[in-house]
Amino acid sequence: MKKYKHLIFDLDNTLLDFNDTEEQALKNVFKTFNVPETAESFDTYKSINKSLWSSLEKGTIAREDIFNTRFALFFKEYNLDVDGIKAEKLYRGFLNNGCKTIKNAEVLLSKLKKRNYRIYAGTNGMGITQRKRLTDSGLLNYFDDLFISEEIGYEKPDPRFFDTLFDSLHITDKESCLMIGDSLSSDILGAKNVEIDSVLYDPEQILSSSAATYTISDLLQIYSLLGEGK
User: Fold this and answer.
1) pTM of full prediction above 0.85
2) Which residues are catalytic?
3) Where are the domains of the chain?
């Protein structure tokens, strides 16, 4: 087992339960604009949103294109005359209040902090949202630094996202770094792009990837993976 010192954590659906936060925020938006709360309506929004984020990760659209168009595209599917940008602002307000954590997230971070690991957030998303959610969840103080795509100007898996992190922290020994996340297309591919090891967090055990160095289904497995025992 390599000796890792710098642990880079994704946030959404790795430490913070974004799925729960997203669902609650969407319910509030749907209620505001009289959209039926059905499995179809949730799936329609998520499909549009996922496609836009995928395009952003590939570098074919700008971040603003997601926030300016996703609800406009969604309401178009339902033939509703709604200001998409207004809906986005409302949604963002609801999203900022979501702070539910993934099982064992705080327990893991507490254990790692006591063992003097350097802990960083390496996440795509908006600064104000991620910082507020970390604060409200009680996780913020476990981190030595935060690297959020909106603030640094690059999205995972762009190598420049990680290069900015390395430069800021004066990290020259990349073998001491470990990326931990749930996304094959941003976290694991991003780690591969800069040749650092990675952990794929796959609680449902439905993903398959030879690109990840390790795969886990429970966050506490990271502690054992690092050779720390119980």
Assistant:
1) yes
2) 10
3) 6-16+101-225, 19-96
